[in-house]
Write a structure and sequence with these properties.
The complex is a heterodimer of chains A (107) and B (121). With 107 residues, chain A is an all-beta fold. Chain A is 0% helix and 50% strand. In chain A, strands 2, 4, 5, 6, 9, 10 and 11 form a seven-stranded mixed beta sheet that branches. Chain A has a four-stranded antiparallel beta sheet with strand order 1-3-8-7, with no helix packed on it. Chain A starts with a strand and ends with a strand. Chain B is globular, with a radius of gyration of 14 Å. Chain B is mostly beta strands and 121 residues long. The interface between A and B is medium-sized, with 24 and 20 residues.
Chain lengths: 107, 121
């Protein structure tokens, strides 16, 4: 199985901050990397797919980059509704696997 | 708007079989364009893909669970189902059903709200 490692596991930030976190795959997954946002008690929501493509309806402050093994998710200006846990997921090979998540908390 | 809704018992005894159903509304499960998946999340932990099914009956399972998992589809009811046998406390989790397009590397674009299943005597 491909292992996905996210860092940091949590971070504290303020509204308006630019935040970036990373996801690393244990082997190359080309650009088959997806990002999800999960709020407490809710299902994950797809934000970006294929590393950098924004899912319909997702605000443009979210962006993604990377290929191969290293990927980043950036929120250009953190909004109150963005405090959540973010998961990366590789869809390169079966079984699809997820990172352990990065929790974004209010500073 | 596509909606997925999980249903089934919230409490299962150890060694028994967990059974859940996902009802799809606002779209047809018989579309050749999609796969229908099960994903779970133990309390306070990360996400684990369980397996998927196409309306044709083609299935894919996570090797770590394959010996205990069966996913089936009922096109007449627009539903698909999960059975997980010989459960233990480690199978306690929120179980989600989800959809992904039937193309290589597609993400999970629609999710159910999830249902908590607790394994306890």
């Amino acid at each position: 199985d491909i292992q996905m490692t996210q860092s940091p596991s949590s971070l504290s930030a303020s509204v308006g901050d630019r935040v970036t976190f990373t996801c690393r795959a244990s082997q190359s997954i080309t650009s088959y990397l997806n990002w999800y946002q999960q709020k407490p008690g809710k299902a994950p929501k797809l934000l970006l797919y294929a590393a950098s493509s924004l899912q319909s309806g997702v605000p443009s402050r979210f962006s993604g980059s990377g290929s191969g093994t290293d990927f980043t998710l950036t929120i250009s200006s953190l909004q109150p509704e963005d405090f959540a846990t973010y998961y990366c997921q590789q869809s390169y090979s079966t079984p699809q696997t997820f990172g352990q998540g990065t929790k974004v908390e209010i500073k | 708007q596509l909606q997925l809704q999980e249903s089934g018992p919230g409490l299962v005894k150890p060694s028994e079989t967990l059974s859940l159903t996902c009802t799809v509304s606002g779209g047809s499960i018989s579309s050749s364009s999609y796969f229908w998946d099960w994903i779970r999340q133990p309390p306070g932990k990360g996400l684990e893909w369980i397996g998927s099914i196409h309306y044709s009956g083609t299935t894919y399972y996570n090797p770590s669970l394959k010996s205990r998992v069966t996913i089936s589809v009922d096109t007449s009811k627009n539903q698909f189902s999960l059975k997980l046998s010989s459960v233990t406390a480690a199978d306690t989790a929120v179980y989600y059903c989800a959809r992904r397009r039937g193309i290589p590397a597609a993400p999970f674009d629609y999710w159910g709200q999830g249902t908590l299943v607790t394994v306890s005597s």
